[in-house]
Structure formats: structure tokens, C-alpha cells
Amino acid sequence: MNYFPLTDSDREEICRLLGIKKTRELFSDIPRENAYYPLDDIPSALPENELIERFKTITRKNKCSHYLSFLGGGAYNHFTPEVVKHLSQKGEFLTPYTPYQPEVSQGSLQAMFEYQTMITMLTSMDVGNASLYDGGTAAAEGALLALRKARKKNKILVARNLHPEYSEIIETYLRDLEEYKIDYIDFIRETGTVNLEELEKKVCDDCAGFLFQSPNFFGVVEDSKKISGILHNKNIYSIQVVVEAMSLPFLQPAGANGVDIVVGEAQSFGLPLGYGGPYLGFMAVKDEFIRQMPGRLVGETVDAEGKRGYVLTLSTREQHIKREKATSNICTNQAWCALRAAMYLAAMGKTGLMKISKMNHLNTAYFVKKIAAFSHVSITYKKNFFNEVVLEVNRENMAVDDFMDKLEEKGILVGVPLKWFHKDYESAILVNFTELHKKADIDTLIDAIGELQ
Predict the structure, then answer these.
(1) CA 109 – CA 327 distance, rounded (Å)
(2) N or C: more exposed end of the chain, with fewer CB within 10 A?
(3) What is the per-residue pLDDT across 340-373, written as a single tens digit (0 to 9) for each?
(4) Taking the model in full, what pTM does it have?
(5) How many helices (H) and strands (E) does the chain have?
(6) CATH hierarchy code of domain 82-346
């Protein structure tokens, strides 16, 4: 199809039809000082070689590579093999459109099918989709899925030790759906875990499901089996959120704990850290939820000649004009993230994944053991952690901001200050360890903390 720009007469006719004199009137709602920026400061074009050198010069100003980082809280720095980077950049994977025509999309469809299979194996659930945008929206979709399935029930329960940004996303999703309500379940400050007594009191006939995170926002593993038992006694769905996917090979799978819906963030499986993404939301459920699932679902079949093939088994909302009753779709580009995760999981294999996740935990355990020698800091939750712990700074010794600043001066980003999210944790820092942290790195952090006594 050819593209023909508008002529002056075309523009005049459009303005006459709209009842305006100039095109600028279309943007009258935008403040004048922000509507049109001067173009005088835009530099002139450069030859390609000079442009590349210009970008290199700008890149040298970036100092992040000089820091030893222990940041986590929902975004984790893991190793990605070069084979994953190379294969995922191939044009046939990077550029294809939504595979509505299976006869020309078998490669993409099989990759999605393999990804779904791996997610169900990691979670011990019946079926997984391919895929969702990120962990936060996956959590919101899990809530909506439970509400759709429960039908006449209109309340969703959410744990207060769920990632606070995930909670905000859930609230945003449900804000304008007046028929649905959210209620929160507190956690026990001494243990960091869900208050099961309060959960038992708040479960009611109107409740469709309960969303809880494990490992939770404080890095503590919840008793998913006990939580699911409390919920199932009242015919309420158990929805587990997994923000650190690397915990899946290491911990008891959600399906074995009676969880009905598992959602979360799979960025740890081969996706690099970026300025906000792209991330990868995943969902795995029991069979009974299959027709209410959002996103794509790829199935295996045979063709007229009996040969194995793959198709989009359940159609997305483009085929069903159901408006607000439609389940959420997933865009073409986001499916590439699931493809890359499948490549990562295949490259690592069962043994490799277990080894990496175990290294995450052992590095954290080593830090917890060594930090016990200090009096000016302490670990808040010393048990049931995976690869994140809460480090408490003695206020009498030093304010937490000063503590973090002094470590940053030494080239160390110690973690995420929890006071950003919880006022009761004014002197606490969430510290994360992965397989990329060598023993020498952890010792550097411990020595630097020791010098601040």
C-alpha cells in the first residue's frame, strides 16, 4: 500500500470539517509552554562513524559498572548464556507477527508451547499461558481470573507483604470495576509472614481468592500449604505470586502446596535488567481455570496427515467482541520475552537451574551467618529466606540514609530502603544475592559494613 501525505487542500478541508482555522487548535488542551518546543538546540546530523563515537563518549559517563550492586526487590541480576542472547536475536524469532496462521508459524508456536510446558513443570500446575506483560499485571490478572471463575463473589483478599507496587497495580485494575472490592490481610512484624489468624477471620462467602507472595516482599517463604488449606475450607481460591522466578527450582512447587493459580515475574530467566523492562509475566493454573485464562494458550495437535503441529488453542479477544467481559490479550513483541525465557530454561536444564538457585540461597545464607558478628546491624528475618534478607541498621549508631551513602562512597549499592514502601521499616534495607555474587564480593560488602561500626 502506498503512503500519500496530506496536501494543503486536504488539510484545509479537514480544518473546515472540524470547525478550526489552524491545526494547532487541535492541541489547545496542552499548556502552551509544553506544546511546541524550539528546535534550535537539536544538533545537525552526523556521519555514521562519528555518531557511533558520539554514543561511546556519552556511554563513558555512565558509572554504574563501577558499583558492586546488591539491589533486588523485584528486579534481579542473573547470568544469561551467550547462546540465549544470540538465538533470541535471530530475525525469525525477533520479527514475526502474532501466529494466527499456524501453517506459517510452527516455529513460533512450538517455542511458546515449550515455554508453557516448562512453566507448568516448575510450578507443578496443569497448564500455563504464553504469556503476560510483567509480574505486577500478572498478579492483577490472577485476581481477575479468580473473580471471573467465582462469578457471584466480588471480593479479593491481598496480603500486605505482597510487593507494594504489585498491590498498586491490582488497585488500578479494579478501581473502576465497581462490582469488585479489595481487602487486605496484615502480616506479623516479628516473622514477616501473613497473619493466618486474621486471614481465617476475614475469609467470607463474598471472597473469591487471596493473593500472597512467596518468597514475600521481605524475602521470607510463606507456608503456602497452610494458607491454601485455610482458603479451601471456605471454597476460596489460593493465588501465589512469585516475584523471583529463580526460587521456583529450589522451593516446593506451588501445585504441591494446593495453590490454584500461580502468577509472577520471569525476568530472572534470561532477561537483562533495563530501565523498566521489558519484563515477563507468567501464569499457571489448574485445569478448571483454562477457559477463563488471559493471554495466549498454544496447544499440540496433528494435521490431516497425522503429523504433529501447534495452534493457538484458545482465541484472544480480537475474535470475541466481548468488551469488558473479554480476557486480556498479549502483544506480539511480549511473546518474544517468553521465547527468550524458554531458550534460557532449555540451555540451563534441570540440573543447571537447581545449581544456580542453590547458589543464590547459599550466598544469602553466608551473608546472614557473617553479619551476625556485628552489633550495629542485624538480620530481621533469619529463617526461611531464599535470596533476599532484611538488614536492620541500629539507629543509635547511624541513620539508614547515612549508612547507605557511606557504602555508596565505597562503590557498593547495598540494597533497597524499605521505608520507601513501609513506614514501620524506617531503618531496614532489602539486600539481594544471586549467583553473580562471588564470595569475594560478599566479603567486600561485609568488610565495608564492619568499618561503619
Answers:
(1) 20
(2) N
(3) 999 999 999 999 999 999 999 999 999 999 999 9
(4) 0.88
(5) 13, 15
(6) 3.40.640.10
